[in-house]
Amino acid sequence: MAIAPDKPFNDLSLLPPPSQKIESITILKQESRAAVALAELKGLAKTLPNQGILINAIVLKEAQASSEVENIITTHDKLYQALTATSVRADPATKEVLRYREALLFGYDEIQTRGFINVNSICRIQAILEENQAGIRQLPGTALKNDMTGETIYTPPDDREVIQNLMRNLERFLNEEPGETSPLIRMAIQHYQFESIHPFYDGNGRTGRILNVLYLILQGLLEIPILFLSGYIIDNKSDYYRLLQEVRTKENWAEWILFMLKATESTARQTIGQINDIHALFNQVQEKVKQEAPKIYSKDLIEQLFIHPYTKIEYISNGLKVERKAASRYLKALQATGVLSLEQIGKENVYINHQLYKLLRNG
Asked: Cβ neighbours of residue 134 under 8 Å, at least 6 residues apart?
């Protein structure tokens, strides 16, 4: 059942917005294109030998990109090194990106196990991101400012009860049946609303971008978290923030929704291309190992090399349930074929699938 609009809190209305503001021929045509791309992505993901390949690779890429939106910059090298080599001390930016990955996977697990997402789950996601328990804002004075001029461009609600009411309304919107409005259009609406509530002292942008993909999974448009809009937002950052603000000041829902739908279509198409590239490389590596190291070949072994582009004896031993001596022998044989290269990172020996790493970094 749809939620009826009510009296706005601090000029921020409850969801949903009036239907005439969010539906037009242009929007519905773009929604159709985005839905087709998303359905193709969902189906193609199932054709991979192991969907863990995508989850690990794309979640880490999204963690990096979403953090970059907030000017938290690190590299793929540092991320994989910190994940794989326990002796490596990660720098603060890398730690923040890895917390994003942890928060996203927590949210995904919440949906898998509980079938819904609530305010407590959202607070937990933000707590993981920020490594604190500050929770929903209780103190007034929060204002969003122009980084260049220092001018205040938006003051979000600052009364705790108001914020809690808005968050409860958002929770209902996230979990209710979409009705006649497409879930993709509703994703754009919920993202605007969350960012405008701005419920936390810090981490609102990254929490909101996590909610986007969780909502798509909740609505059955995806099965695993593999569509992320942060790269598109980075490439179109000024439009993203301008259109968010125009919904607040001009009720320009149409342009905002179109932006998010185009982001969805573009990102889905990009991810489809990446999956096809992973498929091709997987088959290539599979044939190479069959020919050059047939004694150690198994499809499960090749999968492990793609789930962990940076791998080590422990990963192979645990993934294949074999002794460490056997895992070591497999890795050395794969190094001899050129599929893997050996590097010492910190105090540990790490084997790198460079072709896959390059594909994931540049894709």
From this structure: 200, 201, 202
| Beta carbons within 8 Å of 326's beta carbon, 6+ residues apart | 317
What digits encode the pLDDT tens for the residues 191-222? 999 999 999 999 999 999 999 999 999 999 99
In this structure, are residues 185 and 261 in contact, taking their beta carbons and an 8 Å threshold? yes
Q: Record the pTM.
A: 0.91
**Cβ-defined contacts of 338-342 (< 8 Å, 24+):** 339/285, 339/288, 339/289, 339/305, 340/305, 340/311
pLDDT per position as a tens digit, 219-257:
999 999 998 899 999 999 999 999 999 999 999 999 999
d(CA 84, CA 17): 46
Please give the torsion angle defined by the CA atoms of residues 41, 42, 44 and 48, in that order, rounded to the nearest 10 degrees: 120
Which amino acid type is present at position 360? Answer: L
Is residue 63 within 8 A of residue 78, CB to CB? The reply is no
